[in-house]
Amino acid sequence: MVDNGIPNETERADQAFRQLMDDYLASSHGKKVEIITKAYHFALNAHRGIRRLSGEPYIMHPLAVAQIVCKDIGLGSSSICAALLHDVVEDTDYTIEDIQGLFGDKIAQLVDGLTKISGGVFGEHASEQAENFRKFIITMSEDVRVALIKMADRLHNMRTLSAQPKNKQYKIAGETEYIYAPLAHRLGLSAIKTELENLCFKYNHPQEYQEIESRLEAERDERMRLYGRFAQPIRAMLDQQGYTYTMKERIKSVYSIWMKMQNKHVTYNEVYDILGARIVFEPKSPAEEKLDCWQIYNLITQIYRPHPERTRDWISTPKANGYEALHVTVMGPEGKWIEVQIRSRRMDDVAEKGLAAHWLYKKDYDSSESKIDEWLGTVKELLKNPDSDAMQFLDDFKLTLFDSEIFVFTPAGDMKTIPSGSTALDFAFVIHSKLGMHCIGAKVNNQLRELSYVLESGDQVEILTAQHAHPEKEWLDYVTTPKAKERIKAYLNQSVGHYRQEGDKLLRAELEKLGIHVKQNYSSDVEQSLLSHYHVRDLDNLLIQIGEGHIKPTSDELSGFLKIKNKVLSVRYWLPSFLQSSKDQGKGLVAEDHILADCCKPIPGDDIIGFIDEVGQIVIHKRDCREAARIKAEQGLRIVDADWTYTSDHHFNATLEVRGIDRPRMLLDIVSAVSDRKGADIKTLTIDTHDGIFQAKIVLYVRHTDDLKAVRKEIADIPDVKHITRINEA
Ligand code: MN
Question: Is 91 assigned a catalytic role?
Answer without folding.
Answer: yes
